[in-house]
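Q: Convert this sequence to structure tokens.
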Amino acid sequence: MNSNNGIPTNNAAVAALPKHLLQFAVDQRYDEYTPVDHAVWRFIMRQNIFFLKEYAHKVYFQGLLETGISCERIPRIQEMNDILGKIGWGAVAVDGFIPPAAFMEFQAYKVLVIACDMRQIHHIEYTPAPDIVHEAAGHAPIIVDQEYSNYLQRFGEVGARAMQSRKDFELYEAIRRLSILKELPNSDPEEVAAATREVEERQQNLGEPSEMALLSRLHWWTVEYGLIGTLEQPKIYGAGLLSSIGESVSCLEPHVKKLAYSVEAAQTAFDITTKQPQLFVCRDFLHLTDVLEEFASRMAFTVGGLEGINKAIDSTKTATCQYSSGLQVSGTFTEVLTGANNEPIYLRTTGSSALAFTDGQLEGHGRDYHAEGFGSPIGRWRNTSAAPESLSDDQLHSIGIAQGSRATINFESGVVVTGRVEKILRRDGRLLLLSFSNCSAKLGDRVLFDPAWGTFDMAVGERINSVFNGAAHKDAFDDVALVPKDRTIKVPSDAKRRKLENLYQQVRDIRERKVGYERLGEIWETQQAEHPDDWLLSMAIFEILDDAGAQNELKQKIVTFLNQKKLVDKDKATLIEWGFRLVTYHKTGLQIATS
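A:
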């Protein structure tokens, strides 16, 4: 398996990623997973499969087999890539939550981002932080369904173009910080409370939700927490439910309201820190795409116009306005002038800007050349019967526009551009750009461009037909979403914890090799003496003894210990009961359904 700094190079989808996304990829560092991590993974996966055999969409179990995800150990991302590559997908490791726009763009390239942290045992039911259970065992299996795979990729394409606001990014950073703190085993309660308040405050003060905020809700209610089928008997397909042994059970109970999925789900906010009070049920995976396209039909990248330009201005971040000629202007938009019918007639950026066509930067029109911004009229010209981008050279000559000659262009809006035509730029037969020297551009008494400012590059296009987030050519523009400031924190390992990890490894070896049962008593006594709060190791030993039909006295001691744990800790009581249930289930000789 070939890799570069942990990034697989033998997977076509991963190899196609642009460099601005590769900055988020990290090495999985597989050897840093501890025996405790693998035991937590095994417990979650076995419990999930036991429960989900009746309640998950049937493709989930097919997907577990086809993606090579085992219940016995945490998967290697390189191994997953070998299998995902066969269905046109790939995966990269990332550090926790990444910015929403980057997450969406990975999906558009058919690459799953796998947060490689493993939840701690105290969050075995559910973790607010993304982890490898959620990503690998939740998201990956469902994409073997072609209709769902198409939906996920299309969602990425739409999401990557969604307009977002500064407040969106501030909320994302607050959520990321809270998720990191909550996953720490010894985090300061006051610090967690403060981080929780910050998330709540930012959620309450988002104002009018941006396109990205609304899309994030659709993503949450489908990809993360989606149900499919009928309202009366829905099945689970959302990764957040598939990876949560607590919520996968409770989500189907009557107190969780089931609503028919529609585009109106975008109006329902969500809280990542708690279980959801309602869930949405789609008819089938094609239904998801229908709703997505309905939402996309209203977005700025589809409708463009004044509404789209204003969204770009409100975002205060890099965005792209595309003229009907195909010319794309990328930068920070700060002004739009409107005409008599409230249509946009002139736009302006401030600071570094660039021009592109079909998402490729035009030579000589990068950020260095347009370092101080870009401005240009929009609309039809007077004395012409066609959209300006469709005018031929002969038609240009007929109205006095030729390279090397002085010309005047009167826009229907009242904008007047006068100067010497230095260059006429076309692409695919369409007129994109006229470059003037000694040029002035005016709207009435207002000077839009002065000859002293240098060359005036005038965009050509009857209208703005698309506005979207980010630069058209992100790599050339160096339009890079910020890598998160807060990093996920690894649980520190000390001598005591390493001893516990060693006990887990010994038990794992005994279970897999089916030898050394006589050592289980000594291992359990050591755990009791040195790690009395741990319950999962006792459950693992109980499972081995019950399966082997051996050491009944030791087994009874373990049962007594675990039952005492149930009495004093309600959360552990449920988990322990599930552990006993699973052992009993396997003992009866029943086979877990995988289809």
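The first strand starts at residue 3 and ends at 4.
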